[in-house]
Amino acid sequence: MHTPICQRLGIEFPLFAFSHCRDVVAAVSKAGGMGVLGVAGYSTDRLRQELDWIEAHAGGKPYGVDLIVPNKYEGKGEAPNVDKLLSGLPQEHLAFTHRILAEHGIDASGFEDQRRNGSGFASNLADQGASSLEVAFQYPIKLIANALGTPPPLMIEMGKKHGVAVAALVGAKEHALAQAAAGVDIIIAAGTEAGGHCGEVTTMVLVPEVVEALRAAGANVPVLAAGGIVTGAQMAATMAMGAAGAWCGSVWLTTPEAETSDVVKKKLLAATSRDTVRSKSRTGKPSRQLRSPWTDAWEADGAPKPLPMPLQTFVSEPPLRLIDKLADGGHTGAEELATYWVGQGVGLMNEPLSAGAVVQQFKEDYVRAYERLAAAIGA
Using an 8 Å Cβ cutoff, are 120 and 324 in contact? Predict the structure, then answer.
């Protein structure tokens, strides 16, 4: 496709794959889209390892990196102090997680020391992603994205210095206008259908609202549509509304390359669009996840109120990692509790395909949708 965003980024098809899995990133880039590696919580050493691997396996095709540096979080402006963060976790919340596990036959007595595993994310927040940015810009990335709020000035400055497009996710038109004013190159309008962190406005409403608001403000910033998009027809629909392409995350989770376990993949393939929940219980900010007894417990009457980011991460991630480990080993209670971030498009994700095959399916479905529209107007 010969669109401005394809020409700018050197890609064949404006399908962007957000993934925590380097295999997905490389496969999508090789298939003509752009893989974007989610690196929240990565140490600088791990980030180098992952980007080295992508460099060796992406066939010279463009790829990007996605960070999480929110505008608001607990302890902003302070030096990272993991001991202080851990000591501030309410016993009520810790006991609640132990109770959920115990009700499903899981002994949680030995995993408290694992709460320190969230310290990488806390450190990344404290230095505004500076360490990760320094590493990322040592590689020939074509895009750097911030997942929560306006990117820190350093990200925008470094993007301009290195000729790398800076992108940011938004969930409301006022956020899009603020991002454009801050100098962001690409805006990702993510509807509430999206997996992971998301706002309250649907993709069908948000995309044209953001496109029109930017046009009226004279901001020539391309918009990528996100939220529940798992088919080429949906991608074509958003582009008909003014989007320059699609940003997708959930659709890659059932591919064999994805980081998700076999247990989670099986649950995703069986899920309907109603089997997700938008909750603060995992990170402290609203994020959409696959519903399970774990998420139900946090939404029930009498459950503790989720803590601000990143404190809730220290509460939830260690038990969820234990659940994943035990589920992979066949523990029935853990299999029931297992969950993952996923959008409402999961109801359309019914067939396990490779990441490359998903890209090809998007292309074919997009063309069919375009042909239907052309036929409708006699073109």
Answer: no
Do 169 and 195 meet the contact criterion of CB atoms below 8 Å apart?
no
Using CA atoms, how far apart are residues 38 and 121, in angstroms rounded to an integer?
12
β-bridge mates for residue 145, sequence order: 66, 167
Name the 3-class secondary structure at 15: strand
Domains of the chain: 1-69+128-251 (3.20.20.70)
Q: Which helix (H) or strand (E) holds 279?
A: strand 276-279
Q: Which of 131, 50, 232, 265 minimizes the C-alpha distance to 35?
A: 50
Split at pLDDT 50, 70, 90, the class of 235 is: very high
Query: To the nearest 10°, the Cα dihedral for 358, 360, 363, 367?
Result: -120
Distances from the Cα of 181 to the Cαs of 151, 157, 187, 231, 344, in angstroms? 12, 14, 11, 32, 31
Query: Alpha carbon of 48 to those of 42, 43, 126, 237, 294: distances in Å?
Result: 10, 9, 20, 37, 34
Token match 């800076």: residue?
A: 166
pLDDT in tens, 31-89: 999 999 999 878 899 999 999 999 999 999 999 999 976 555 444 555 556 677 788 89
Rounded Cα gap, residues 361 and 366, in angstroms: 8
Q: Please give the pLDDT value at position 260.
A: 95
